[in-house]
Amino acid sequence: MASEDRPYRPKDALGAGIKGTMITGGAGVFVSSIQNTLTRQNVSAWGVVTRTGGTIAVFAAMGGAYEFVRHASANLREKDDSWNAALGGFFAGTALGLRFRTMPAVLGYGAGVAVILGAFDYTGGSLTGYTRDPDVDEFERKQILRKNRRRPIEQTVAELGEGIYGPGYAERRRERLKDRYGVEITAPKPDASPGL
Questions:
Q1: Which of 91, 53, 98, 99 lies closest to 73 in space, CA to CA?
Q2: What is the C-alpha separation between 92 and 62, in angstroms, rounded?
Q3: How many angstroms separate the Cα of 131 from the Cα of each of 11, 62, 113, 166?
Q4: Backbone phi, psi, residue 168, to 5°
Q5: Is the N or C terminus of the chain more exposed, i.e. has fewer CB atoms within 10 Å?
Q6: 151 — alpha (psi -120 to 50), left (phi > 0) or beta?
Q7: What are phi and psi of 35, to 5 degrees?
Q8: Which pLDDT score, from 0 to 100, does residue 191 have?
């Protein structure tokens, strides 16, 4: 793996935790405002904080716990791998499970989120495909791929032929039709006049 060749660089776990708390807390405010809008009783605009404010706290705790534990475990282990994301996911899931106030929910949500985030990080951490090496120029990478898959036209024509059917196809077809159906098909005579 390329990450094993490079020396490990420590990360700011506290800063990442605060940043994660702010980002997911903002998402929690958004979800809480939607929940407040969809309630039957119109409390007020402060219902986002008073009535559905627990959503903000859960979102903020999940994001902060995930980012802090992920970076702190990477710093302690001095490795940047999928186990860090799984540990962060476990703590984020336990923050979600605390809302239900039972130990099975805490451990179950922790394990579930740990498996999901660990697998997501292990498979590349992207929904659009694997990440490319940032040290390789994209143009050079595509040139290498083109040269790797390029064939001379002579080789392609030799393997496939110039037309759709290979050489001797017409004779083999006439023989098959005669064997199966008893139909004699004569070969077309070449035209003596040049094509117009």
A1: 91
A2: 4
A3: 21, 26, 23, 43
A4: 80, 10
A5: C
A6: beta
A7: -60, -40
A8: 65
| Grouped pLDDT means (10 residues each) for the chain, 196 residues | 69 96 96 90 82 93 97 95 96 95 96 96 80 80 81 76 71 88 81 54
Torsion sign (Cα): 24, 27, 33, 34? negative
Q: List Cβ<8 Å contacts ≥24 apart for 157-164.
A: none
Residue 1, pLDDT score: 44
Taking the C-alpha atoms of residue 24 and residue 55, their distance in angstroms, rounded to an integer, is 10
Taking the C-alpha atoms of residue 185 and residue 177, their distance in angstroms, rounded to an integer, is 8
> How many other β-carbons are positioned within 10 Å of the β-carbon of residue 34?
12
Of residues 80, 74, 75, 77, the one with CA closest to residue 2:
80
With tokens 């032929």, the residue in question is: 161
**DSSP secondary structure letter of residue 140:** H
For position 196, what pLDDT does the model report? 47
- Inter-residue contact 31 to 55 (CB < 8 Å): yes
Cα 169–176–163 angle (5° rounding)?
15
State which amino acid sits at residue 176. R
